[in-house]
Amino acid sequence: MKAIVSVFAxxxxxxxxxxxALLAEKEVNVLDISQTLLQEYFAMIMLVDLTDCPLxxxxxxxxxxxxxxxxxxxxxxxxxxxxxxxxxx
Length: 89
Hints:
alpha+beta; 4 strands
């Protein structure tokens, strides 16, 4: 299964490294990544593969959200099929 991970925060050093380390810890593979700065704000969207992740999706979502809050990051994950369905025109 694939999913979309989004991260928003005030820009600080190491955000990408922190999030990708969390994902690697849970055996989540990053397939594509896009990030940008909007003045002092950081925004990142990643397409990830959850095939090897041992956690249920709900637990992975909770883990990323809680770990993000520890660093002042707003982190969300959404299944790709739901994301695609929500954004079809």
